[in-house]
Amino acid sequence: MLDIFADLVGDSGAVVDIGCGPGRITGYLHAAGLRVSGIDLSPEMIRLARRDLPQIGFEVGSMERLELADASLAGIVAWYSIIHTPPERVPAVFAEFARVLRPGGQLLLAFQSPTEPVSVQRFDHKVTTGYRWSADAVAEVLDANGFRTTARLSREARTGENSENSPQGAVLAERL
């Protein structure tokens, strides 16, 4: 999904990895040729990202209030970044993503999926409360907040994957 995202965005503009942590995905996208930077709520994660990837810009910030101009981005990746956002706040987060993406801009989300047949499932994560989303539920919220879903991926957890053995999901969407 990251490679598909990179192909779709190409050299069309700036990309931000929101909730970038120490920059693992940001570095991958940079190596794929994207003009990417990272934003994370944790100053410690940003410190680590800056230390390990000094060629990439990283800033402390919140996905709920991005300090970016309207329609300024060609793409956003939020790789496992929405899992701690309470479900009632996710529509506003997606609306904020839509605000900073230009029409036709690409959004790629990855998340843990429910272990039961529900849309959203609360779970105790090692950091704080987490929420698992079905790909269909994420797509529904995106489609109601300025996006058109273009691809969905659901898969089982891989052996040794740090995911509490939960299925995994990803959704690719285009800003309307």
Automatic annotation (TrEMBL):
Coiled coil: none annotated. Gene3D superfamilies: Vaccinia Virus protein VP39. The keyword Transferase applies. Keywords: Methyltransferase, Transferase. Residues 154-176 are annotated as: Disordered. InterPro entries: Methyltransf_25, Methyltransf_Superfamily, SAM-dependent_MTases_sf. CDD domains: AdoMet_MTases. It comes from the Bacteria. The keyword Disulfide bond does not apply. Residues 15-105 form the Methyltransferase domain. GO terms for biological process: methylation. This is Class I SAM-dependent methyltransferase. It comes from Nocardia acididurans.
